[in-house]
Amino acid sequence: MNNKTALITGSSRGIGRAMVKLFAKSGYNVLINYNKSEKEASELYNELKSEGCFVTLYKADVSNVHEVNSMIKFCIGEFGKIDVLINNAGMSKDKLFTDITNEDWHEMINVNLNSVFYTTQMALKYMIPEHSGKIINISSIWGMVGGSYEVHYSTSKAAVIGMTKALAKELGPSNIQVNCIAPGIIQTDMINNVSDEILEILKDETPLMRLGTPEDIANCALFLASDNSNFITGQVISPNGGFVIT
Ligand code: NAP
Questions:
Q1: How far is the CA of 189 from the centre of ligand 1 (A)?
Q2: What whole-number distance in Å separates Cα of residue 174 and Cα of residue 163?
């Protein structure tokens, strides 16, 4: 077993999947969390196991506090501690604000925001006594600058930024760093509904002239998880190719 353990939520697909691969191959024990994509998660688990990595797999809906608590206890049982918590699981939905139903609103807030409260509060039970830990929350550029047709998504992601900043202040004396990654437009299933034409326009509007890859975000997370970032807390880092510069 490795010395350090990372729990990465929503890691069956997309950005979380890339993070799992990078962390597992960089000397971390990794808990792969999935909710609906059991096949993809099992394939990832088997692939990494066959390469000699220390990974484990857990099905949990992160918007359900009981399932989150069980997942974190399971992780402690498997690996003994949690050094890095990456709150990556998330959903998006394009909808005109006036069409958003109460159900839509609550689902978005439950999956993208309440989940971060549940996982973080539970993980801290194990991090605070160790006087060490790294929490990395995945927000979005739309949480920084707001996205039309995505008000509920933008709201949830802006709240994650606020939570990161406040928690960083509270947890600094416990030597726990809390930071946020706010990705730009990244090529995953999440942007499957965006037409090729719009994607070309978005590329043109990006100074680096391309969309992001899940690996671009995973590399940033690996840095924030490492000792190289020990003096960084409460910050929002936005790998977005220059699409948003604040
Ligand atoms: P994705 O390809 O759609 O993958 C989403 C992941 O989240 C899946 O592994 C999914 O697991 C998991 N997930 C969703 N709801 C869950 C729940 N209730 N419980 C547990 N896991 C859940 O999306 P992605 O692009 O990788 O997005 C990852 C994160 O980056 C999200 O927080 C997203 O908001 C953020 N982000 C993405 C972009 C982008 O352009 N792609 C930009 C900015 C920010 P299952 O399939 O197993 O349910």
A1: 8
A2: 17
